[in-house]
Amino acid sequence: MNAALLTPPALESGTLRVYPLGGLGEIGRNMTVYEYEGKLLIVDCGVLFPEEHQPGVDLILPDFAPIRERLQDVVGVVLTHGHEDHIGAVPYLLKLRGDIPLMGSRLTLALVEAKLKEHRIQPQTRVVAADQTDRFGPFELEFVAVNHSIPDALAVAIRTPAGLVLHTGDFKMDQLPLDGRITDLRAFARLGEEGVDLFLPDSTNADTPGFTPLEREIGPILENVISRATKRVIVASFSSHVHRVQQVLDAAVANERHVAFVGRSMVRNMGIAADLGYLHVPPGVIVDLKTAITMPDDRVVFMSTGSQGEPMAVLSRMANQDHQIEVGSGDTVILASSLIPGNENAVYRVINGLIKLGANVVHKGNAKVHTSGHASAGELLYCFNIIKPRNVLPVHGEARHLRAAADLAIETGVEPSRTIIGDNGVVVDLKNGVAKVVGQLDIGFVYVDGSTVGEITDADLKDRRILAEEGFISIFIAIDTQTGKCIVGPEIQARGFAEDDSVFDGVRPQIVKALEEAAKNGTNDQHGFQQIVRRTVGRWVNSQHRRRPMIIPVVIEA
Fold first, then answer.
1. What is the pLDDT of residues 206-224, one digit of tens each?
2. Cβ within 8 Å of residue 472, ≥6 positions away
């Protein structure tokens, strides 16, 4: 991967430009921009969830900077499916221009519209379906059914005079799917015969050998786990994983239990899925949370959010005993999801917390209670052989996944020079059947922190980490700026460093001496004296305590 910034040249006529603004080198915030003849088409607009080293951050958005001044050129946004890492940033894009048309399947758009309603945005939407062809500006779009861990997922073929692009979105090749909707390999083959000039495959499982296990293998295991549970059962999953929730409903019915949805997004999304007929709810099985809490322990299943250890999600709050559902001895908790890279510590912290409360925790590490929604290496090999793309740009994965997908493409005959492994912001031009890197945009992280968007920087997060890990020291001094002599202070206070402020008795004389010497050497301004105090205290703390706390000196002229 070439991380060096390179300004791309002006786009030549008859050339298709492709630049991902998220989703490369990470699992999340998937967003790719296609540009042709001055018009832009966006495929997906998702979020990335923060890791432990990003304290206080709620969401991470794609960096809209490269298109912010060109939003009027955007002809539409194609949403391949309804997972947060593909639709979660749509409200933030539409806050910049509210009339951008959104295209997606019926379920995908229903989930997006519910999200936008919370932001008080009324979108322009167009429902599309598999085998349908549509045109937006210079882009002719053909939608292809793909199988994923949410119903109604679509790949999109993009035709322009510059060539044919196939963007899979997230997909796998489950041959016995719960909803009977398989990935349309016939359409993939037909597109391959037409000639796919650039293939953007889902790379998330490219380094996993073989084939992704079938979804239908999970249902009997869930049913068995629930049948052996003697008290309450709590199942945590993604709030949009309709197939998994369906299996939990079926298992609950088989064991004469009722189900309560817990978590705002779970309640909202499953209500939508049920209303549209994607979730089949047996009569009488669903009860509200208040009713479920009063029911006998062996008659209820709680279907909740929080499978990734998110601090404010339901499962984490249960583990912290900060939820009305009080997990106790004999309860069974099932984590029916994969571990997103980066979330491992948070998830295991929740697991440990639940075990300490006496729960029996069942997860992918000790039982087959989940299977991935992404194609493994064997499935990708099939796709490369069927499609025979001229050029490949792997997307939707960390660096190791992108490399693995590129290696698979090369094994099936794609020229190594025609496989592109890029970072977010890589600019790829397609012309005459050849795709090549022509630039690298400066792409950053856009943090959502409470009600602020993009105002928190990496430097702010570094400060938060220092405060959390190293503590905080403030020094107040009033001095004569002519002589550097202390009139008041140094008064030193610390938080998260030492309980007794007398620990600083050793550094106070050093501060006094350093200020007087600085004045003799010509320092006579507030900022200069503050820097002297910061360096003096910093050296002392580092040498005496091996710590690097945040140091805030306040020097005033007496």
1. 999 999 999 999 999 999 9
2. 494, 495, 496, 497, 549, 550, 552
